[in-house]
Amino acid sequence: LDMVAQALELARKPHVVVATPGRLADHLRSSSTFSLRKLRFLVLDEADRLLEQGCADFSADLELILESVPARRQTLLFSATLTATLSELRGLAANEPFFWEAESEVRTVEELDQRYLLVPEAVKDAYLVHLIQTFQDEHEDWSIIIFTKTCKDCQVLNMMLRKYSFPSVALHSMMKQRQRFAALAKFKSSIFKILIATDVAARGLDIPAVQVVINHNTPGLPKIYIHRVGRTARAGRKGIAITLVTQYDIHLVHAIEEEIKLQLKEFSVEEQHVLDILTQVNVTRRECEIVS
User: Which of 1, 34, 108, 217 has the fewest CB atoms within 10 Å around its CB?
Assistant: First the structure.
């Protein structure tokens, strides 16, 4: 959106301003008339993402915003997950903050087939390629979402899958907004059948017809797992979620199973098929990492 048009809107002194940290900080830096000195309420939605130093680091923008608001204000933080950063922030508060956590009785839906695949870390990508090839061969019209931990992994996997001629598109927070919208539009319209995404896409995505979710990494928090696998088996439809579990992730799987009150079933694959493509997949991965 145009900065000048937004500045004119802000000059009218609106009662409520909804903004991303980056754009709000830009206005604070570029305008001598725009001020937050009379602000009474500061609301941080998706607070865990805003405070997390990952793909998109908002710390510099948030620091400027917090320096610009009055000390006497009410600050409200909303988050779908209680991360270590939020817990630490809660402990640092001068006054004991009000804390409320909503509990849902339904962790995951019955229509969702939840599986795990135990794989060595070094060969995980070969298993991923084999899984996608299997689903593409058996169900050409199925849509697949692959969740990754980092923006770099997201970008590298997208490049790698495209080298295997899979119809994939990436979605992560380092992309510009119009690029994210374009990627989602292509996935929703089935131009691309595979969406590779970081957890920025796990919140609020409205894609009703996704048949498969693959967790390229085992989520560190059960709630993140629930958000991810909740992208499939929606509105009474059936779906399958497969989590690639390495030798270092067993305790994470146990925590997930305890939270969802369900034991994940093992997903079986033809090991020889994976071995047949292992060397080529690893070489392709390294090539993509070099150019990414």
Answer: 1
CATH number of 13-92: 3.40.50.300
Domain 13-92 identical in fold to domain 112-291: yes
Q: What rounded mean pLDDT belongs to the chain? A: 91
Confidence of residue 202 (pLDDT cuts 50, 70, 90): low
| pLDDT, tens only, 106-142 | 578 999 999 999 999 999 999 999 999 999 999 999 9
Phi-psi region of 110 (alpha: psi -120 to 50; beta: other; left: phi over 0): alpha
Percent of the chain past pLDDT 90, that is, above it, reads: 74
CATH 3.40.50.300 assigned to 112-291: yes
Whether 228 contacts 219, CB under 8 Å: yes
Q: What's the average model confidence in pLDDT over 46-53? A: 81
Q: Are strands 144-147 and 265-266 parallel, antiparallel or unpaired?
A: unpaired
Q: In whole angstroms, give the CA distance from residue 67 to residue 60.
A: 11
Amino acid letter, 200: V
Indicate the helix (H) or strand (E) that contains 242: strand 239-245
How far is Cα 213 from Cα 149, in angstroms, rounded to an integer?
14
- Which residue, 73, 71, 77, 60, is CA-closest to 26? 60
Domain assignments of the chain as residue spans, ordered by start = 13-92, 112-291
Average pLDDT score over residue span 39-68: 87
Cα angle, residue 80 at apex, residues 79 and 85 outer, rounded to 5° = 55
Name the pairing type of β-strands 265-266 and 112-118.
parallel
State mean pLDDT over 172-186.
89
